[in-house]
Write a structure and sequence with these properties.
The chain has helices at 37-55, 88-109, 112-117, 119-135, 138-146, 151-176, 182-190, 196-216, 218-224, 227-230, 246-249, 261-264, 274-277, 298-310, 322-327, 331-337, 341-363, and strands spanning 2-7, 13-20, 60-61, 64-65, 67-70, 75-78, 81-83, 241-244, 317-320, 367-373, 380-381, 387-397, 403-410, 416-417, 422-425, 430-439, 447-457, 464-473. It is an alpha+beta fold. It has a domain at 367-473: Immunoglobulin-like, CATH 2.60.40.10. Strands 10, 11, 12, 14 and 16 form a five-stranded antiparallel β-sheet that branches. Strand 1 (2-7) and strand 2 (13-20) form a beta hairpin.
Length: 475
């Protein structure tokens, strides 16, 4: 708020001040229900993403949860794959792949992620569906909000928010189920004995879902999401976006179905404003490309319905490129134009990184070994004048079956292991083995000499790791 003072005739300042707001108050958006091709695609992605999200934690694999990020044990289970903190490089690769995929899809067809698969879009669709079932269609919801408080209004609002809260808490419970075995989580939840961090994250994630999808909605897409701000860097005039055909639609205006628009000097747009009413962010697509547009295609569906009713061809609002609209290209010509250098570069880099990550995972050895020198005794002389170094081997079994590993050493003449040469490690466990390595007194001159430990499994699936170390010979 900024105070504005009025000047008096004598040149002074009047005592009365008027407060002028620099911020427009939010106008609540009541999205109208719509059906059509893109609406079906949007609901298909809602079903697919939510079946995966809510169902995946309940799947079992090798008598355990199929997908579990066990932070306490520092192990990530993804079906038959077991990852450890040392495998952080794969998470980095996944994030790079996701970012490049987002760049590629945005360059080709705009905000497809936002319009169809973003959790904000998905949960907003679910919450709007609940709201519609309880309070009615768009006009009924508007009348209910404007009406005075009554028992009927209170009952509908209470039921809507109760269903929202239950759904949000179930979402938070499922989210935590990816980090705590969900069956154990369900048992302790029913027994009202949840731990502090499980309780916090269930309610925190549930509250975020309830607030973002129930109240903030388009505010998240327009003001909180950074993607809305930097998407323009990935757009160009050959990006497929939701576009209004201004040449065909203008000048707009209402008319009867039997009227000839050419005789009236009107375009195909009947100015019904339904494209604005169905928009989840409340924009008017007829004003051109706007950063608030999430590319959901709702305006396309409703405009096609109107065109069918008045007997005009579809496509007044459609997915098209700016160059295509300016030059009158067909859809095939616009798609062909999509294979431009930017898209090809994104595709090439994405395929290369994805292939590298997949090959690395396939060739990944399910055995990890760390060699640590015993700092309590760097080198010592034992029986028969032999020189001994002591090493501690941390052997990590990354498989889900018990493994027995054989340890050998090489690198110096006559080098041998004077302790146990086999170690047994339980599934997905780490075991420490103390290895005493000895060499003859005349094996090498004094100083540090490189040696190599070979650790090899004895089971059916043979895996082998070679680790280098240094053997010290005193003067």
């Amino acid at each position: 708020m900024v105070p504005v003072s009025a000047a008096s005739p004598q040149g002074g300042v009047a005592e009365d001040e008027e407060m002028v707001s620099l911020y427009a108050s939010r106008q609540k958006i009541y999205p109208r229900s719509v059906s059509g091709l893109f609406s079906k695609w949007r609901w298909l992605t809602v079903w697919i993403t939510q079946i995966v999200f809510y169902g995946l934690p309940w799947l079992e694999w090798n008598a355990r949860q199929a997908v579990l990020f066990d932070l306490e044990a520092r192990r990530f289970y993804i079906f038959g794959l077991v990852l450890y903190p040392q495998d952080f490089i794969y998470l980095t690769g996944l994030l790079v792949i996701s970012a490049l995929a987002l760049f590629l899809f945005t360059a080709v067809a705009g905000r497809l992620w936002c319009g169809y698969a973003c959790p904000q879009t998905v949960y907003t669709e679910v919450f709007l569906w609940i709201e519609k079932r309880v309070e009615g269609d768009r006009s009924a919801r508007m009348r209910l909000d404007q009406a005075d408080l009554s028992a009927q209004k209170f009952g509908k609002k209470w039921l809507k928010h109760a269903l929202w809260i239950l759904f949000a808490l179930w979402t938070g419970f499922t989210f935590v189920g990816y980090f705590t075995p969900i069956r154990e989580l369900a048992a302790v939840s029913l027994a009202a004995s949840l731990g502090p961090w499980q309780t916090f994250w269930i309610f925190f994630y549930g509250f975020a879902t309830y607030g973002n999808a129930g109240f903030m909605r388009e505010q998240v897409c327009k003001y909180m999401c950074p993607y809305a701000r930097f998407q323009s860097a990935m757009f160009d005039k050959d990006t497929m976006i939701v576009t209004y055909d201004e040449k065909r639609g203008e000048p707009r205006g209402p008319r009867s179905r039997k009227a000839d628009p050419k005789a009236l000097g009107l375009g195909a747009c009947v100015d019904c404003t339904l494209c604005v009413q169905v928009c989840p962010t409340g924009i008017d697509i007829r004003k051109g490309l706007q950063y608030e547009c999430i590319g959901c295609g709702a305006c396309i569906d409703v405009c096609d319905e109107v065109m069918d009713k008045v007997g005009y061809p579809r496509g007044l609002v459609k997915y098209a490129t700016q160059n295509g609209m300016a030059n009158g290209w067909t859809t095939a010509e616009m798609v062909k134009r999509g294979l431009r250098p930017r898209v090809l570069i994104y595709t090439g880099i994405l395929m290369a990184i994805t292939t590298a990550v997949m090959v690395s995972l396939y060739l990944r050895t399910p055995l990890k070994v760390d060699v640590i020198r015993d700092r309590g005794a760097l080198a010592r002389m034992v029986e028969q004048g032999r020189i001994e170094n002591v090493f501690r081997l941390q052997v990590m079994n990354a498989t889900e079956s018990k493994q027995r590993y054989v340890i050998s050493v090489s690198g110096l003449p006559g080098i041998t292991i004077a302790s146990e040469t086999e170690v047994e490690v339980l599934p997905t466990e780490v075991r420490s083995a103390v290895i005493r390595v000895q060499v003859p007194p005349d094996a090498a001159s004094s100083g540090s000499h490189p040696i190599q430990f070979d650790i090899r499994s004895t089971g059916e699936d043979v895996s082998q790791v070679e680790e280098k170390a240094a053997f010290l010979i005193p003067r």
